[in-house]
């Protein structure tokens, strides 16, 4: 069995003459949390969109669980990228039920993910009346609906208060224990330091650094050194 849930080989995404992702080689261990770091515009969202089939690579290869990525792999991927995909005229439960119906998932799963994300009491409230943090939690609930083996979260703490961030952090740490590999992107170094097993630093579309996380590491200093060194080279 392969040790990696996701591997990319020379992955590239080009828009006309501009590169969003350039010759990227990344390895995401199974049942681990991979923190993807980078300043705004580094290419994080583009990379995550390719991993979820939203964007097609210009060249290179994505392997999932040891085989070339295929559309059917989406059955084992849950994702929250950028804004949660919500029908704001519907309640939280109705949003989940629509997705469950499309995927052929029993509606009992809707109640399970609502409870997991602490949204049961607000399940019959229209999502147009939700706070930004509640919408984020519902977006994660939607991503968990198909019991994914790979969960991709793009800036998941956006809009959450400190208590919400703390609860989400604990939940993310629990996912690998239930067989879920997590890729989480953020520009907040302290959040990644507290949840990630491995990190990758992305800048100008290139993966400049990839390593396991050591609690003794000064992640902020590592990040600054990597970005500064690359800036000096260019």
UniProtKB/TrEMBL annotation:
Keyword field: ATP-binding, Nucleotide-binding, Transport
Pfam family, one: ABC_tran
SMART domains referenced in this protein's UniProt entry, alphabetically: AAA
GO molecular function: ATP binding
Similarity field: Belongs to the ABC transporter superfamily.
Protein name from the UniProt record: Lantibiotic protection ABC transporter ATP-binding protein
SUPFAM superfamilies linked to this entry: P-loop containing nucleoside triphosphate hydrolases (SSF52540)
